[in-house]
Design brief:
heterodimer, A: mainly alpha, 11 helices, B: alpha/beta, 6-stranded mixed sheet, 4-stranded antiparallel sheet, globular
């Protein structure tokens, strides 16, 4: 655990010194300012619209940063050759995976909280007062969904280079988010083994849509119950754990060679 | 201390591709006595780095085994007593030299005052005290090599593995590496290093092993290996050429 924390600390420190997160916060603030300066629909609804846009961007940018950070860490170590320095220490590969995930997720959490702060402050400035408890639940579940995505990106990056890992994780995440909730409807159109396959996919893929409480906050539906929240947190933790386990299984026997080892 | 710092016992490494199989190491048997400076020599592609990678767990052997101070290298704990400088060292450029050492120290179980003291000592040893709080991104290539060497020395390992440590260094850098290697031996530690710089090897090594095509073709004390009047470099060329011709040439 101590080693994993040391690895996580370096990941977080390196990302805090890079520009990506700061630039995304500035982009979000600029978009919010641009939307706030528009008179959308010429009605008072524009303030809520502004918050809707802010949350949508926060969601999107959270995904971008989670996949980018998660998929960059392990391939980055290999590209730099620092993986040789790390694994030459008494550091197990499980600790390396855990530390990378923890550090990447901590960086993602810091960025995402900054995104939420920008979205919320622009909403408050235009007179929108979202329900506090529901908003906190939304943030918590958003961060949990990003924990799953970060773990997914790390798992994929154990066997692929950075660009391939990013592409594959984006595809998998979008497919999961957009298609999985529609599977029950699709099953009614399918028959035989296709129906069975769809049902299998419905149960074996993560349901990222469950972590999206933006509509509840925007429309003032109030917080979800404690039991549901606890179940969702447990569901997110289990998925994160499963993906990290897959990452470890894929990485534990991984051979590292110089590019020109056989020349 | 154990009699041998590291030992390879019938070590074999094969890389399989769809088309063919390449034998990187073939039944490698050798041991390195503790407290010696051991030169691991061979032409490019002889299998030196592969053997080092097996020692550090980067590569699983296809057959045989390797041990460090009697401990199987597949166990994470075996690396507690190893300091390693890779052939193409690079480090986290967003960190400062001191932060890099603190990170490396934590992974080796150091903390607090001990870690600070050790970090200061190795920074002094590699002449990087003044640059310690600068980001590594601003370091020259030689400085990066030295900060990598510093992280290898940090936890006072019993076995130092250096893969081409003088590659790309200027004469002063080479002198520093040579001095550190000698100091390390004087403290009863073992240094295992691979190099193409045979004059360097002749100067500092107690024993050498020459590898060609994944096999040991000669090993022993450098002065005993070469014929009278023959330099290590000439001997090296001769045995490597013999090994190539006995295998049907290149």
């Amino acid at each position: 655990m101590r080693n994993a924390l040391a690895v996580a600390g370096v990941v977080l420190r390196c990302w805090s010194r890079r520009k990506e997160g700061y630039i995304l916060v500035l982009i979000l603030a600029a978009v919010q300012y641009a939307v706030a300066s528009m008179d959308v629909l010429s009605s008072g609804g524009s303030s809520l619209y502004l918050y809707d846009v802010g949350l949508l961007l926060t969601w999107f940018l959270g995904w971008v940063i989670a996949i980018h950070v998660g998929a960059s860490e392990l391939p980055g170590e290999e590209m730099r050759g620092t993986v040789f320095l790390l694994l030459a220490k008494p550091l197990s590969r499980a600790e390396l995976i855990a530390g990378k995930w923890l550090g990447a997720w901590a960086a993602v959490v810091a960025c995402t909280l900054a995104f939420h702060a920008v979205a919320l402050s622009s909403a408050l400035a235009t007179g929108v007062h979202p329900p506090l408890l529901a908003m906190l639940e939304m943030c918590l579940l958003h961060l949990l969904s990003l924990a799953i995505l970060t773990a997914m990106a790390i798992a994929v990056s154990t066997r692929l280079n950075r660009d391939a890992a990013i592409s594959l994780t984006v595809t998998a995440a979008l497919a999961t988010y957009l298609l999985v909730p529609r599977i029950p409807k699709l099953i009614s159109y399918a028959a035989g083994w296709r129906s069975g396959m769809l049902e299998l996919l419905y149960y074996v893929l993560p349901h990222l849509e469950l972590f999206d409480l933006r509509r509840r906050v925007l429309h003032g539906y109030g917080p979800i119950s404690g039991n549901v929240l606890t179940t969702l947190v447990a569901y997110g933790a289990v998925w994160t754990g499963v993906l990290l386990l897959i990452a470890w299984l894929s990485y534990r026997q991984r051979h590292f060679q110089r590019d020109k080892l056989l020349e | 201390m154990d009699a041998s710092a590291l030992a390879f016992d019938g070590l074999g490494v094969r890389f399989r591709s769809r088309r063919d199989e390449v034998v990187a190491l073939d039944n490698l048997c050798m041991s390195v006595p503790a407290g010696t400076i051991f030169g691991f020599l061979g032409p490019n592609g002889a299998g030196k780095t592969t053997a080092i990678h097996v020692l550090l767990g980067f590569q699983q052997p296809s057959s045989g085994s390797a041990a460090v101070f009697g401990c199987d290298v597949r166990k994470t704990i075996a690396r507690q007593r190893i300091g390693y400088l890779p052939e193409h060292p690079d480090v986290y450029r967003f960190l400062t030299g001191r932060e890099m050492l603190q990170f490396a120290g934590k992974l080796c179980g150091l903390s607090g005052i001990t870690l600070q003291q050790r970090a200061n000592a190795v920074l002094q040893e590699v002449n990087l005290v003044e640059a310690a709080d600068r980001r590594i991104a601003t370091y020259s290539r030689g400085m990066r090599q030295r900060i990598c060497l510093a992280q290898a020395l940090l936890h006072d390992p019993d076995l130092l593995i250096l893969d081409e440590p003088t590659g790309g260094l200027d004469p002063l850098g080479r002198l520093l590496i040579r001095k550190i290697i000698s100091d390390w031996r004087n403290r009863g530690k073992t240094v295992f290093f691979s190099s193409h710089e045979l004059s360097e090897v002749e100067l500092v090594c107690d024993r050498v092993c020459i590898l060609a095509r994944g096999r040991v073709v000669a090993q022993g004390v450098p002065q005993d290996l070469a014929a009278p009047g023959e330099r290590l470099e000439q001997f090296f060329m001769r045995v490597v050429a013999d090994a190539a011709s006995s295998n049907g040439g290149c």
